[in-house]
Amino acid sequence: MIVSLRRKSFSQLVFSLSLLIAFPAYAHVGAGAVDGFAHGVQHPLLGADHLCAMLAVGLWASQSGGRSLWLVPLTFVGVMALGGLSGMAAMPLPFVEGGILMSLLVLGVLVAAAVRLPLAASVALVGLFALFHGHAHGAEMPHDASGLRYALGFMLSTAALHLAGIAIASALGHIGRPQWLRLIGASVAAFGGALFFIG
Prior knowledge:
mainly alpha; globular
């Protein structure tokens, strides 16, 4: 009885937090200062859509294990950089905001259902989502040295969020709480759904 109450309380807490952060999150273009290294580091941490997606990449990479553990996050950061360059160059990319929302929904569901895809499919999927995230942020960067420093900070912060997701998944596995990991994934998917309806 006590265990079931604790599980219910935890799931309610995670869901409530996802709803609380949903309202200020849908803000890529024009979201605060976008120059310099410090702003680049801060931006992924302050944009809840990016924060949740990056954690989900790490969570899913940890769940998948094997080469996915390092190749999935590295692919995301690398393709995100290419997407950022395309955004800075004003190259058109349709459905950017829709692609970002889909990254939350899909990654959340993959974590919640503990889906393991072949490595090539996993890399292709996160690469597609990374393109959208990178393009959105690249489009708002200045085309000078401060923009390059911003991009470096943004990439390092994104990689750190991937590592945080891996660490969370590993910790939950060590304490025998894989179901909490699935609850987090469901919350990320619910957050993406909330953003879809709000937007």
